[in-house]
Design brief:
With 214 residues, the protein is an alpha/beta fold. The chain contains 7 helices and 10 strands. The protein folds into 2 domains: 115 residues, Ribosomal protein L1/L10, rRNA-binding domain (Ribulose 1,5 Bisphosphate Carboxylase/Oxygenase, 2-Layer Sandwich), CATH 3.30.190; 88 residues, Rossmann fold (3-Layer(aba) Sandwich), CATH 3.40.50. The strands form 3 sheets. The protein has a 4-stranded antiparallel beta sheet with strand order 8-1-9-10, covered by helices on one side. The longest helix has 18 residues.
């Protein structure tokens, strides 16, 4: 269960004085500011995939590169299934490849296809942090995709400030707070001095004002 301080911060961020009602359901983002971390060294950067205990409010979109039986199994579960012959087509149509990268949150690939994907689509997927997660051909694709649908990716790159999705404004403050706590715990576990390396953290709706969490 999340701390009361985080629950209160979420309630504040959702309050009309900080977030006017819009004609769409706003996302909530967590903004984390690090301190005393040398991010010029790649080993100090945060690059994590985190399953949110209460989900994202809207499921992540998943694309699967697969052949044969794995492709068949993935068809009813993933948002998009890409077979080997389509990889070549995407490599030749940069616009289509970019659209695919932008419209999906996570990519999964049958391990034997990874060298081809890296060679043909790596330039588009890698800079966006969307290189596929390799899986064996006999993997339980349903459980992998279902887990990713509730997951987010956090990347600090070389900047001390980074942000990530924690859910939607129609989720309960308690559920959002639990997601926030899960993210902060993971970030702390990756920092040399834990919470001491976090300068501050804020929560905000898409169009709202930022409210301090820590």
């Amino acid at each position: 269960m999340a701390s009361q301080e985080i629950v209160e911060a979420v309630k504040n961020a959702l309050d009309e004085k900080n977030s006017k009602k819009r004609k769409f359901i706003q996302s909530l983002d967590l903004v984390i500011n690090l301190k005393d971390v040398d991010l010029s060294k790649p080993e100090n950067r945060i690059d994590e995939e985190i399953e949110l205990p209460k989900g994202r409010g809207k499921e992540a979109r998943i694309a699967v590169f697969a052949t044969g039986e794995l492709a068949l199994k993935a068809k009813g579960i993933a948002d998009t299934v890409i077979q080997p012959e389509q990889i070549k087509e995407l490599a030749e149509d940069k616009k289509k490849a970019k659209e695919l990268a932008e419209s999906h949150d996570f990519f999964v690939a049958e391990a034997p296809l990874m060298p081809t994907i890296g060679r043909t689509l790596g330039r588009i997927l890698a800079p966006r942090g969307k290189m596929p997660k390799p899986i064996p051909p006999d993997a339980d694709i349903e459980s992998i995709v279902n887990k990713l649908k509730k997951s987010i990716k956090i990347r600090s790159k070389d900047k001390p400030t980074f942000h990530c999705l924690v859910g939607k404004e129609d989720m309960s403050p308690e559920d959002l707070a639990e997601n926030i706590e899960t993210i902060l715990d993971r970030v702390e576990s990756k920092l040399e001095r834990g919470r001491m390396n976090i300068k501050s953290a804020y929560i905000k709706t898409t169009m709202g004002k930022a409210v301090r969490v820590i």
